[in-house]
Amino acid sequence: MGVNLKDIAQRAGVSLATVSNVVNGYRPVGERTRQRVQQAIDELGYSPNLGARHLRRGRTGLIALAVPELTNPYFAELAEIAIAEAAALGYTLVMENTAADREAELALLDGSRQRIIDGLILSPVRIGREEVLARTAGSPLVLIGEGVYDVPHDHIAIDNVAASHAAIRHLVAIGRRRIAFIGATPGGDRQSAHLRVRGYREALAAAGLPYRPRLVAGTDAFGRLDGMRAMRDLLALGDPPDAVFGYNDMVAIGALRALAEADHRVPEDVAVVGIDDIEEGRFTAPTLTTIAPDKREIGRLAVRRLIARIEGAEVAGPLTVQTPFRLLRRESTGTPDA
Amino acid sequence: MGVNLKDIAQRAGVSLATVSNVVNGYRPVGERTRQRVQQAIDELGYSPNLGARHLRRGRTGLIALAVPELTNPYFAELAEIAIAEAAALGYTLVMENTAADREAELALLDGSRQRIIDGLILSPVRIGREEVLARTAGSPLVLIGEGVYDVPHDHIAIDNVAASHAAIRHLVAIGRRRIAFIGATPGGDRQSAHLRVRGYREALAAAGLPYRPRLVAGTDAFGRLDGMRAMRDLLALGDPPDAVFGYNDMVAIGALRALAEADHRVPEDVAVVGIDDIEEGRFTAPTLTTIAPDKREIGRLAVRRLIARIEGAEVAGPLTVQTPFRLLRRESTGTPDA
DNA sequence: GCGCGGCTCTATAACGTTATACAGGTGATG
DNA sequence: CATCACCTGTATAACGTTATAGAGCCGCGC
Question: Where's the HTH lacI-type domain (chains A, B) (predicted)?
Answer without folding.
Answer: 3-57
